[in-house]
## 1
Amino acid sequence: MKIVTLSLAVMLAAVVPSFGAGLLTPVDGSQPPLRIKEHKVDVVVNNGFAVTEVDQTFLNPHDVDLEAIYSFPLPKNASLSELTLWIDGQEVVGEVVEKQRARDVYGKEKQSGRDTALAEKREYLAFDVMVSPVRARAETRVRIVYLQPLEIDNAVGRYVYPLEEGNIDEDERSFWSRLPQVHGTFSFQCLIRTAYPLDDVRVKGFDHLTKVTQSAPDTWIVNIEDTAGKASLDQDIVVYYRFDESLPARVDLLAHRKPGEEGTFLVVVTPGADLQPIVEGVDWSIVLDVSGSMSGKIAQAAAAVSRALDEMRPDDRFRVVAFSDSARAVMGGWTPVTPGAVDEASRRLSALAIDGGTNVYAGLLEGLRDLEADRTSAVILVSDGGANVGPKDLASFLALLGKHDVRVFTFVMGQGANQPLLEGIAKASGGFAMNVSNQDDLYGRVLLAREKLAREALHGVRLTLEGVPVTQVAPEQLPSAYQGEQIAIFGRYLRPGVATLRLSGRISGAERSWETSVVLPEQEETYPELERLWALARIEDFQTRIDRGGNERESRDAIVGLGTAYSIVTDHTSMVVVRPEMFEQHGIDRTNRDRVENERQAREGRLQQYAVSPRADAGNPMFGQRSAPRTGGGAAGPVFVGLLAGLLGLREAIRRRSSR
Amino acid sequence: MRALPLRALLVAAAVLAVAATRGLSQALIWDAEALRQGEVWRLATGHLVHAGTSHLVWDVLPLLAIGLLFERTLGGRWWRVLAVSAIVVSGGLLLTDLARYCGLSGVLNGLWIAGALAAAREESAAGRHAMAWVYRGCLGADVAKILAETMTGAPLFTDAAALGADPVPMAHLLGAAAGFLCDRFRTNIYRVPENLQSQQARQAHESGGRL
């Protein structure tokens, strides 16, 4: 059969815009559209990381073979670890090779008409999956699996299945149209398994189809299903799971080690909720993105900022800066936070023209103007886009920040923002970056941030293990830890034993440290995924070095080495699937096939048993407090009101009768 | 027509004013850390703050109902019971690990207990013994509910998720204790309403001087 090919389809894929999830079809009509027949998502959240399996079936209703290009927004810190294509009814797991080589292999296989697939990472924007051919009047099934560490903030875990639109470049949009509709069954199941008790699980996105059940003390299940063929992959699904707030501050440890080999560990420290309030006033510089891509979000962002300003302390001051192609002050001088001033800021924000590109640098530069040395200052930067005007490299931003003593807090709206850049800015200044899905309650996220900023933070954080040889710890530099945040490190250990875990840092200039002992086990094979998660954390460190202007070649080689050794799709490595007999012809080892099989068996094994507590300091607690502050309240409730109303009625009736 | 519960309406107006005034909730909420730093007004004002509309509605409605039921019975003691309950609840919560607290329900429990005990006596004195026992039965059921909530840590008959804050059964227990204390140490033994005095005297006469 004739294969309709796109000229340089793979190359073009490098410039497709960051739409939400969906099949991409050229708008020029050079290829008729395929259909997504089924889209099935299975997520398992287990002890600090999530495994997401996306099983998709494409349908080609036409009389010619076609190529499918499926794109989905890049989940935060995700490691794409499996691309499986069904060929002649059999599963064939992909292998990771250097990016250009993967493209060459895919191109050759496609040209020769053999079944092939390719998964690439497109910078910070998306994963693109190409499948060729989807046979005429036939279906093709693929499975994508990715791993990602999850953070728990103030006892609330948050998992996002990203689907909705990110930033959009109108020029690039002219090349592609996106087909997000699932014509058959769409299903999403998220299994949350934890040895720590959960209070509540909530879901945003597809609300009317969502069912949440607790099937066992350690298991909650979120189910979303649409069999009517009406589901559209254009809104995120955000799952929140709230832990019992009586949980203690603690140290969790997961390890993976086969006897005689190097082990891998993940240590997660949840500090006590004892950071003290900051009493002096703060100057807030609000820097808001008003570029074209914010058109659907600016009202929400402005309202959230206004409401958050309402909650600031009376001795705080603020100013507001807006930026698109350039930056301008919306509220120029420092203004005390009063209801009138907030109303005025809100009015001016709502009158702004939403247009143009995204010059983050100009916005930050304006936001840093007129800082006063004797006042604590903070910048809140809200953006949904990648920097596409002005300086775009992290090194330039770091040079700018180096001239000011200020913390920058970035709110990344949607899935298309340049997350590495905004996170890099926040981390370098001692602030934090917070992701905000459009499904999130932005006001709630801003308030959560304000709560953090109203308290002291642990700066210059160091988390070390002593007594056991430990190497290749990632991340190399830990960010400041704010109220309710966890501190996590991955690393390798050369031999088992008891190690002293020490957390140290500065709180309001004073050195503080805590320690406990943890056991790095001789043999533990429950979580083989830890190896990939560790490798991903290392890769992010090397990418940060590149972004900061370090030795690019050395770091790039290290990324390629880790990507191929641990089968991770990165900016420099891609995953390719070919017919089983063709792997050998292309000189590609089947290392990922074995790794995937091992991980699948481990996942199935974990589901057969109760969730095991990862707590490592139960016998020798590192902290003495709770992990989250409690906010309480209580209402009398409708039953009490009913009782009182009944009493009132009865009393009146009896009194009336008595008086007669 | 019975008189309006003006005292309850006044408290309800204060609650609504706090909810409607931007930024005020943060300055008034019961906050353990702020209290330790000397912001003692929060001991009283925290009860006027609410975490959301649902929380507010399910506190203001019973406040008005309690006003209609007991304001006349409690008379001048209304404010005393309210103040003692507020202080007992706020002070007692300082002994817990709670970071922040808001809501009127603890205080309502104090008003309800003190009011129902007084009303039971009033009904009994007026010869309406059935009604007096209804009050006592309701009091018993409420005390059992509060004890059950305190022991399990979970609220009965309340949608905790809709409140916007975690239920604190301890606040209800403290409020109830304050209500009992106010009743036990009441200084102005309830005044028999004018229209009951003659009826009471007649009953005393018929029963040989025993009330």
## 2
Amino acid sequence: MIAAGRAVLAFAYDFIVGDDWRIAAGVVMVLIVGGAAVRAGASASLVTIGVAACVIGVAFAGIVGTPRRD
Amino acid sequence: MGLDAGEIGVIVATVLASGVEFVEALTIVLAMGVARDWRSTLWGSGLALLVLAVVTAIVGVAIGSTVSEAGLQLVIGTLLLIFGLQWLRKAVLRASGLKARHDEDAVFAAEQAAASIANRERHLGLDWYAFVISFKGVFLEGLEVVFIVITFGQNAGSIPLAAAGAGVAAAIVLVIGAVAHRPLANVPENTLKFAVGLLLSTFGTFWMAEGLGAFAAGGESLQWPGGEVALVILLGAWCAASWLAVVRLRSLARRAKAVA
């Protein structure tokens, strides 16, 4: 049962996150900061544009950094 | 009845993403059918489609009935974005020459070679190798289609629209595959994957940011400045960032070659 659960989780991880967890971690970090900004009362325009800019930046850095890590 | 930008995006994204996955599944099915046994291959593919239909129905209903709109956008947008970035990362690496391009003829040849030397074990009157490989191939490629159909459909408020997009792609690939009776190697698969990665990342970003409204006092979705026009601007931004990444990686690869 535990082995089956682990296999399902491993499959889900590989399916969603794939072979570079850093990009996924970066997206989650942006999400946390964005959530904090919304809680603090930041405007919708600021949050949406800021989150998009940060996510694109995180992805760009993660993809361009791939050859150095591999 | 006109379609808005979001609905057009849903159709385009599901047709392209599903088309790419169906091309890959077709290659495996053709290899098993030609090298082993069509009956077992079709049973494996059919069972995989049945399981996928059940998964879609259960997950679709469960997600739609248990989470608020903003919460749904947040969860699904984030998953879609992370999933889409996998596609985009691989596409950028392929375009810059750092990763081998996907070649359906090579995949077909490898699958056929493996099938020709595998054991001829039989269960339930079926060639077990052909049955299992075609089941796995159709199920795994189909799971990506299901994920895209559910995420796009739920967020756009129309799973039937997203499912119709996938259905159109399936019909096109099946008809061409049946006529050609060989892997669809001439489909510009790498370009399509790049386009799909861009679309998934664009919609994922859009919905994730809207869903952050779940953290606000009222829990209402955030509104993008300009509404759905922001989707076009986001797509442009993702295209520009990807192009810059390809240029940067090509220059790094050239420099590494010059040093070596």
